[in-house]
């Protein structure tokens, strides 16, 4: 069923930006105060690794449920329902215990995981001629929210005297505001017959779909390793908690223009391969510089890191849109790429913590970063080819008896 263009596209675009701004603060606010959390909650390095990894695992586990949730409630209503869930998960951190922290990340990961999957299909459906541009705007907003949380949490907790539980819980406020502002986006229920549900088949057997998925997963593995561990790495190297948080914030803030420019550049080329190579190369140079280069040069390498990771994440979302033939395939490809991809991505911060605990330093972690980046480059080259995945969509009634994927 073809849906007409939204009656208020600018208002819808603004509302999507507000939702996007809330998709990362709950994840990036933990790293800058992780040493204090470990001290006060009695967490070992292994437990801290699990704390930074579990949200990403939940993104992957709950993401594939998004098409079912959208079918049950509608995409807009599902997003409206999940934003208060996100706020509740963030508020759990106020309690300050290890149990509350781990419970919060499950709730947060579930809410963000489903919304993450719903938005690309919404962009493909409601902005068919501007889907690439809107994907860039959405990614830019994700990066902006991540940057603000990474930079503001440590000063709020340590210098303003709020303490890390209150500083982490404060990020529930913008989630509640986003839910209130999303309310007008809920469409009125149609007086006609029931909606036609579409079934997508052939996706999980398609090699191109797996290349998109693995590129999403491996570049996300590096991103979440940065969210969870770059600030502790810089603190171990001699920066203060506030300065380390600001470096991470600046790096993520630089992702904002990179995420917006990457779609424009990628669209100029028939293939997105040059964009993938530039993004992964720049990100790896920046990340290794933050780990190994002299501290006085960290700010420059943080800029390289921000350019690379902002462009890589934007490209990962763009490839979901470009490789899908229609919005139904895009919804399922988004669920596959973000579901499987985020489970894979969870290995990044987990192995960073475990490897550091085993080796006692960060040199081996730099080798791990290099291996992940090379994998992302390889699968990104395959995903960047100007093709569509071989999946097809058709009305569910006509697909009875066919295997569901």
Q: Helicity range of the residues? A: over 70%
Mean pLDDT: 84
Taken from the alpha-carbon principal axes, the silhouette is globular
Number of self-contained structural domains: 1
What is the CATH class designation?
A: Mainly Alpha
Structure class: mainly alpha
* C-alpha termini separation: 20 Å
Radius of gyration: 20 Å
What fold name stands as the CATH topology? Growth Hormone, Chain: A
Taking pLDDT < 50 over at least 5 consecutive residues as the criterion, the unreliable ranges are 1-5, 190-194, 398-405
Largest sheet: 2 strands, antiparallel
Number of discrete helical segments: 17
* Name given to the CATH homologous superfamily: MFS general substrate transporter like domains
Q: How many strands?
A: 2
CATH architecture: Up-down Bundle
Strand order of the largest sheet: 1-2
Helix/strand order, N-terminal first: HHHHHHHHHHEHHHHHHHE
Instruction: Give the percentage of residues in beta strands.
Output: under 5%
Protein name: MFS transporter, CP family, cyanate transporter
Transmembrane segments: 44-66, 78-94, 100-119, 131-158, 164-186, 207-227, 239-262, 274-295, 301-322, 329-353, 365-384
Keywords: Membrane, Transmembrane, Transmembrane helix
InterPro entries: CynX-like, MFS, MFS_Cyanate_Porter, MFS_trans_sf
Quick structural overview:
GO terms for molecular function: transmembrane transporter activity. The chain is mainly alpha-helical and 405 residues long.
Key traits:
transmembrane transporter activity, disordered C terminus, globular, 405 residues, transmembrane, membrane, mainly alpha, CynX-like, disordered N terminus, 17 helices, two-stranded antiparallel ribbon, Growth Hormone, Chain: A, MFS transporter, CP family, cyanate transporter
């Amino acid at each position: 069923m073809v849906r007409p263009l939204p009656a208020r596209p600018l208002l819808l675009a603004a509302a999507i930006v507000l939702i996007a701004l809330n998709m990362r603060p709950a994840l990036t606010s933990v790293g800058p105060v992780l040493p204090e959390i470990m001290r006060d909650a009695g967490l070992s390095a292994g437990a801290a690794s699990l704390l930074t990894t579990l949200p990403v695992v939940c993104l992957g586990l709950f993401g594939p449920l998004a098409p079912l949730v959208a079918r049950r409630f509608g995409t807009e209503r599902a997003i409206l329902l999940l934003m208060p869930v996100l706020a509740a998960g963030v508020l759990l951190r106020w309690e300050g215990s290890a149990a509350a922290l781990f419970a919060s990340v499950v709730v947060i990961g579930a809410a963000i995981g489903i919304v993450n999957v719903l938005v690309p299909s919404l962009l493909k459906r409601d902005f068919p001629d501007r889907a690439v541009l809107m994907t860039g705007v959405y990614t830019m907003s994700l990066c902006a929210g991540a940057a603000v949380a990474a930079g503001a949490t440590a000063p709020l907790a340590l210098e303003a005297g709020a303490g890390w539980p209150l500083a982490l819980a404060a990020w529930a406020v913008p989630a509640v505001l986003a839910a209130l502002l999303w309310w007008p986006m809920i469409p009125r229920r149609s007086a006609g017959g029931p909606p036609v549900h579409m079934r997508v088949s052939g996706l999980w057997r398609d090699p191109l779909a797996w290349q998109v998925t693995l590129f999403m997963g491996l570049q996300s593995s590096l991103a979440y390793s940065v969210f969870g561990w770059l600030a502790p790495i810089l603190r171990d190297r001699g920066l203060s908690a506030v300065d380390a948080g600001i470096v991470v914030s600046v790096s993520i803030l630089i992702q904002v223009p990179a995420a917006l420019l990457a779609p424009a550049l990628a669209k100029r080329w028939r293939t997105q391969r040059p964009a993938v190579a530039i993004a992964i190369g720049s990100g790896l140079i920046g990340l290794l510089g933050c780990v190994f280069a002299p501290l006085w040069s960290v700010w420059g390498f943080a800029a390289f890191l921000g350019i690379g990771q902002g462009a890589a994440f934007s490209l990962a979302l763009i490839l979901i849109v470009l490789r899908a033939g229609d919005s139904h395939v895009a919804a399922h490809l988004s669920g596959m790429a973000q579901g499987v991809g985020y489970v894979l991505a969870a290995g990044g911060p987990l192995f960073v913590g475990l490897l550091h605990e085993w080796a006692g330093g960060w040199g081996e972690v730099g080798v791990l970063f290099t291996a992940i980046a090379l994998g992302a480059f390889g699968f990104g080259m395959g995903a960047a080819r100007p093709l569509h995945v071989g999946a097809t969509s058709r009305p569910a009634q006509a697909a009875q008896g066919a295997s569901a994927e």
